[in-house]
Each structure stands twice: as C-alpha cells, then as structure tokens.
Amino acid sequence: MNGDSQFKEVKNKLDSVGCGFCLAKWTQVTMHLHNGMTHSCHHPMPHKIPLSEIKNNPSALHNTKYKKERRKEMLNNQRPVECEYCWNVEDNSNSFSDRVFKSEEPWALPYLNEITELDWRANYNPKYVEVSFSNTCNFKCSYCGPLFSSKWVEESEKFGGYPTSANFNNLNYLNNNDLNSYKHSEENPYVEAFWKWWPELYRDLHTFRITGGEPLLSKDTWKVLDYIIEEENPNKNLHLAINTNLGSPKKLIDTFIEKINKIEEGERVKDFIIFTSIDGWGKQAEYGRHGMDFELFWENLENVLIKCPTVTIGIMCTYNAFSVTSFDLLIKNVYELKKKYSSLKRAWTTAVTLDSSYLRYPRHQTVQMLPKEFSENVKMHYEVMKEHEEIFHTIHNEYGVTYGYSEVEITKIKRIYDWMLSPQNKDEQERNRIDFIKFVDEHDKRRETNFLEVFPEFKQFYEDYKMKTNGYNI
After folding, report:
1. 285, 304, 421, 473: which could form a disulfide with 280 (CB 3.0–4.6 Å)?
2. Plot region of 178 (φ>0 → left; ψ -120 to 50 → alpha; else → beta)
3. What pTM did the predictor assign?
4. Cα–Cα dist 234/205, whole Å
C-alpha cells in the first residue's frame, strides 16, 4: 500500500467515528510539569492542570476534565475549536492533516477500537509521553525565554524585556497567565503526581521523551533512568529519548553515558535516542545559544558517539538569522560524524541526523527578516548538503551502512530557502529588522558580547538599520 492510500484509509477510519476524531487526544501528551500545563499534540495551546484534579487522580496530568470534553466532541462528530490547525488544512487543501499523520503512528492506530469503545469520561494512559520536569537551564538561547529557561527568568527579572516593538521576553505574559515555573528547590505537586502515576504509566508506554529546561540538571531525569535500570520487569519495547544541550561539564556527561550503557547493555529499552540542538558553527553558534561552550559541546557529542555505540543523536537545528553565515561548516562536520560513526548497531543505523526547522518566533530573528542577498547563503547550504548526498550516497562504511544526508534532511533545507523568499509584508519586515538591531545591541550590553565581531558579514546590514533605530517609534 502506498503512502497516500495508507493515509486515506486511516482518514476513513477516523471519519467513521467522527469528522473531528483524532487518536492523539488520547494517546499523546506533552506535560510541562514545571508550570502545570498540558496538551495533546503540539498544535492546541497548553491548558492548566487543576491541582484539585490531580489530588485524587494523578493521571489528570493527561486526563483533565477539559481534555475529556474535547474527546466528547470528537466522539460526537464535532470538531474541537482548539484543533483549528487541522481543520484549516482539511478545508483549504487536498492534503492530509496532522490528525491523520498522528493517528497513523504505531503509538496511536493500534488502539483505535479500544478507544472508540471507551466512555469519554474514562481515564486513558497515553502511549507517547513528553515531559518537562523543570525549566532549570544553563543556557539562555536567543529565541527561547523565561517559560523554558531559568537563566532567562533571572535576566528578565533583572533587566526586564528587550526594547523591541513587542518588549521581547518581558515577564508580564507569564505573570498574567499563571505560567510561572516552580523553582527547582520547591516542592512541585505536578511532579509529585507524576511519580504517583509513573509505575502504571510506564507499563503502557511506546515512547517516553524528557525535555526541559536542561534535563540533565533535573534530579527527576536521573530518577527515571535509575528506575528503568533497576525495574524488575522493564518495558523492553520502550523508545526512550532525552533532549539535552550537551553543555554540561564532562563529569556529568560521563555519568549520563554510564546510565545509557547500563540501559542499553541490559536491553532495558528498545532504543535510546538523544536529541540536542545547535544552529551554526563555532562562535556564531555560541552567540545564538548563549551559555554554550562550542568546543565542550562538540567534545561531549563525540564522546557519546564513541562510548554509546547503539545510540543515535538527533541534532535539532532551529535555523534562524544567526545560522546563515556558518551553517555550511555544521553540515560538513556533521557529515564527518555520519561517516565515522554510523553503523548497523545504532538505533537508526545513522550516527547523527540533522533536522532543520525554520524559526518563526520571535519574528525579529527569522531568516525572512534578512535582506534578500542573504538567501544566497541558504541556497548554498542546500547545495552543500545535496552535494554530500550525491557524492557519498552509494559509499558504504565497514558495517555496510550508507551514510550521507537523507532526502528528508536535504528537503528541509530547501523548504527554509523557499520560505525565506516567500512574499513579505514590507512594513512588518522593516519593523522586524529594526527590532533585530535593537535586540543585538541590548544583547551585547547585557551579556558583554560583540555582535559585529562575531558576525562581520552583517556589518552593512547592521549599519543601514542602526541609523533607522534612532527615533523609531515602536
């Protein structure tokens, strides 16, 4: 069965239950335990988990009354308003929406009949769980913020928001919407509820992914790893993943590697994937991901690949304005890692994947903000990646594994190039460019950095718009 036929069959099954039916509302959850928010699927906005609900029902971290009402709508042939992303796709194109793609996943589709036979009031253990225990982080990346980084909280408390048109990363939104995070040292009722639910939840999991903040700075991450190591009846079908910036001291990374190897050697999980992030090369990568020591990051990354021969590392690149002048070096060096370390022993056979998505917010840092001439850099990055695929695609290493960049990895860079050149509102673009200058100036002032020293390629652009910031009315 080809892809379209398969997805069409899934859509027909979903529609036979209801025009808005989606299995992700039952089988998938992201829980931000540091501030008590939850959502199923990344499209609907997270909603607050009432403390009164988890008091007697820890699974209300996922099975909130609010979410159950949305499930009721789906089972009654209605479309929940919060899922409008998918309705826009279905009503305005011939494409399949994410409710089809997500429902087709192995952590969703096998449970279709089981779910449709349930009462909408029933609790259900999700199969794909992503959890953030804490927003404690040693980085304050330029496009991140106080919601996910304690370092950003400290800066915003001290200096306030940045002097952009949107007052970037001021704390008003968090304060006004009950989104402030529990401190790492505080008792957190949401984390307590998680651990009450965990033994039951663990048995049914297909995928468990820990994110943050920086997970390696959270005691609960280590508690999960030790639980899996010590559990008498481990879930050997579990796909385990951890997001980490790999910016922790070498000693902590060594301890992490020891835990990974105990889990892998004991066959305690089906596979173990590490996700990390970098958006450029060298000093330019450090500028965009403030707190990063690039040499330490690369040393830690390669150390994991050397000492954990079954683990794949997925690099999540948030391609942004700071990426355009050094990304080709990242492409070439990631290729060398693929060439050196890919093997049949690894979870995905490849050593490293480079998953590139374009930054959309904050708008003052997207590639769409840049002058058109910078698009040649993005085009070059696509060509460099394509070159590596074409030249090395049929060459095999000692394990008989093909390495080089996949069609998916290459296509994502092409998508960034196309998006960068898509039509822009000129007034908004002008405002975003001025905001960019205001941002880097304030960044340099607060963090004792030097934008033009790190990015000399931006000199003309910076000078042109620096003049426009004077007297600009935001």
Report:
1. 285
2. left
3. 0.91
4. 11
